[in-house]
Design brief:
Number of strands: 16
Distance between the termini: 18 Å
Radius of gyration: 24 Å
CATH superfamily of the largest domain: Zn peptidases
Oligomer: single chain
Number of helices: 10
Strand order of the largest sheet: 1-2-6-3-7-15
CATH topology of the largest domain: Aminopeptidase
Shape: elongated
Amino acid sequence: MNIQTGIEPILREIEAREDEIVALTQDLIRFPTINPPGEAYRPCAEFFGARLARRGMKVEYVRAEGAPGDSDKYPRINVIARYEGSRPGPCVHFNGHLDVVQTGAGWTVDPFGGLVRDGKVYGRGACDMKGGIAAAVVAVEAMIDSGIELPGAIEISGTVDEESGGYGGVAYLAERGWFSKPRVDHVIIPEPLNVDRVCIGHRGVWWAEIETQGRQAHGSMPFLGDSAIRHMSAVLEKFEHQLYPALAARHSDMPVVPAGARQSTMNINSIHGGEAEHFEGLPSPCVADSCRIVIDRRFLIEEDLASVQGEMKALLDQLAGERSGFRYKMRDLFSVQPSMADRNGPVASATASAVRRILGRDAEIVCSPGTYDQKHVDRIGHLKECIAYGPGVLDLAHQPDEWVGIKDMVASAKVMAVATMDLLSRG
């Protein structure tokens, strides 16, 4: 059997392995890989690697020593498995993050129980993205078990810390050549962007802390001080009447979903001023000498980071010229440039073609409003051939009672198999 004629038996085999996909999803959910702090990373990675080793894949474990959060108590353990084909060819790599966010309140089921009900698997990480990982694993196993002489190589990685920026996971590996040519040619990340969507990129992000400064005085004589909170209110007023209207007027040609994210946006993540929050009893009567906000600015591929930062600085400098006593500090916290693969490139077109074959309808080509690990594959690994495709409804990510549809996992596993066979045969 050759690679061109062997896909139909593989698709039938994936269909027959629906229960395996469900069971693997449940097994992965039952590892409470909560980040932060990074719980259960090692046992989850070792479970993942042991399964792939049974298929003859070469398995390596890489600890991201020195990465943010890495410690002996919470080691940042990544696992990478590789299957070498019978002859030279390209490498298709499936990357999934093993970490999940905190459970939060509002659950009606056990967040780490892996409940199956009404055609869905429930649990923290079911949608984002352990269901996608399970689909990719079973797709690859079905290809290996088929006996087809595959050219090139197939890799699967389970990485950590995506929910906190990916620096202990894909970024660490990319810095060491794990996501660059000639080792890897195409990357598919099974993030939950909906089963009929191919995600080719994401907007940029800039986080910063802005602090307004004042002068402390007795609260009964505020005229002897200078309130940093009142200065911050002037900043917020500028945002409302000047910055937010300007951002709303900027629109992108990136196919970002939902449509509201096709413009520049900014969220105020937090605000802190004056008395510290963590105390018991009554606060002391003081004029606040400091007030801080953290901003989350999402920007378009048509913008650049320097202009985004410069726009904020110009607004604050304008206030300094208009408002008596206004002083501020601005500190960068985190930034990522926008990323977008070629929608007509090999990995995007192969996956879109596979969606059409399996689902009987055209794939929607989209970009994500937030970032994911494509940013590190692109910017550090210098590999543009990277997209996100997987089961799961994007809106369910990080929600209570998170779930992934069983039929969607099976369909996405078929899509991944068809796309992989296409990419390997092109090589």
